[in-house]
Amino acid sequence: MVSNKQIYVVGLCGSLRQGSTTHAALTIALAGAKEVGAEVELLDLSEYQLIFHGAVADESEYPPDVFILKEKVKRAHGILLGTPEYHGSFSGVLKNALDLMRYEEFENKVVGLIGVSGGRMGAGNALSMLRIVGATLRAWVIPNDVSIPRASQAFDENGNLRDPELAARVKTIGREVTQFAALYNSK
Questions:
Q1: Most buried among 30, 66, 86, 133, by the most CB within 10 A?
Q2: 8-13 and 110-116: which strand pairing?
Q3: Start-end of H helices in the chain
Q4: What is the pTM of this model?
Q5: Which domain holds residue 70?
Q6: 187 burial type by CB count under 10 A (0-12 exposed, 13-18 middle, 19+ buried)
Q7: What is the CATH number of the domain that holds 179?
């Protein structure tokens, strides 16, 4: 469906846990993006040696992985942000990764949001806060987002969502990010 240009969509995983439900949700969303023609990549923050924002006086002192991560996000046409909801907000890991970036990585990019939560209320607070961050970074955050409540029970042992309707909604986020990014980047 992506016609004139290969759309590149990245999923930024805001969880460091092995086998995290955030990782599983992003994998599903990226599959949706791939179905409509995107080149996709899951950016698992546990695989990057990052530094706390503000820990050094100058960006030139950042570890090389910071620049690698920033370049992948900057190259992307669409970005999926996935986070667990911790204490009513999105994860510190994701916050730090976003703080290491600037407008150049996000400006005029299409962003989709996915949140997971251990509780029955879902990740609405985290998603609302990420929507504000996305707008502040001058990104186009799509109106739809997905909150997955009781995440530890929502996925099977293979990382698939048990509820087919919820799985379809997660895939739709990936599809919409790709389709809107294709529209934005068409000539």
A1: 30
A2: unpaired
A3: 21-35, 64-75, 92-99, 103-106, 124-136, 151-154, 164-185
A4: 0.95
A5: 10-185
A6: exposed
A7: 3.40.50.360
CB atoms within 10 A of CB 158: 6
Model confidence over 94-136: pLDDT tens digits? 999 999 999 999 999 999 999 999 999 999 999 999 999 999 9
Token look-up 């992506």 returns 2
Structure-token pair, residue 59: 């960006």
| Polymer length in residues for the chain | 187
Q: Classify residue 152: in a domain, yes or no.
A: yes
Number of domains in the chain: 1
Nearest to 72 by CA among 48, 41, 45, 98: 41
- The Cα–Cα gap between 101 and 97 comes to 7
Residue 3 lies in a domain: no
Can you tell me whether residue 1 is helix, strand or coil? coil
User: Is 121 within a domain?
Assistant: yes
Q: Is residue 5 part of a domain?
A: no
Convert 47-59 to b/e letters by CB count within 10 Å (16 or more is b). ebebeeeeeeeee
